[in-house]
Design a protein that fits this description.
Elements lengths: L2 H19 L2 E3 L20 E8 L8 H17 L10 E3 L4 E4 L17 E6 L10 H16 L3 E9 L11 H7 L9
Parallel strand pairs: 1-4, 2-5, 2-6, 3-5
Antiparallel strand pairs: 3-4
Length: 188
Amino acid sequence: MNATRYLLLVLLAVALTAVAADITLVTRSEWNARPASGEMDSMETPLARAVIAHTGGGGCIDDQSCANLVRNLQQYQMTRQKFSDIGYHYLIGGNGRVYEGRSTSLRGAFAGANNEGSLGIAFLGNFDQQPPADAALAAGQSLLEQAVGLGQLVENYQLLGHRQVSATKSPGDALYALVQQWPQWSDN
């Protein structure tokens, strides 16, 4: 291998490591997720869309309250909504941490028929009046970059707000206005 090619590979590895280091991923075992209760449809990755949602209700600002909120949301979605697992692929807390939801190779449960081919990312809380914390917004943007690097999203993915694919106010007016300024935003 020539020196230029080797240097490019080293730089690529460093860049991917830097992107991965930008987020703190809280695994399912770390937030004490329940196991899935049933079969879920698979999806082929990389996905063509990322859909930004909010969970509504109260938010969180520290590790314990965010983990509790994710567990409570999973419990609600599995018992009340009869989902096999939490509906989103990733959730982002006000503490700037990213919580692992269902596998990105499994169809989400957040946008009805539009779940197919979509990566579901939900910010924990209600962002109709106020935007999420800066740390959460930074984590969301880094997560999208990392998802491309990991082959979960295509490089030219479409970024959409939940309200564009479902009859909902999600991700809230304040968050929706910010997400429209992010790279990859799509009006479709």
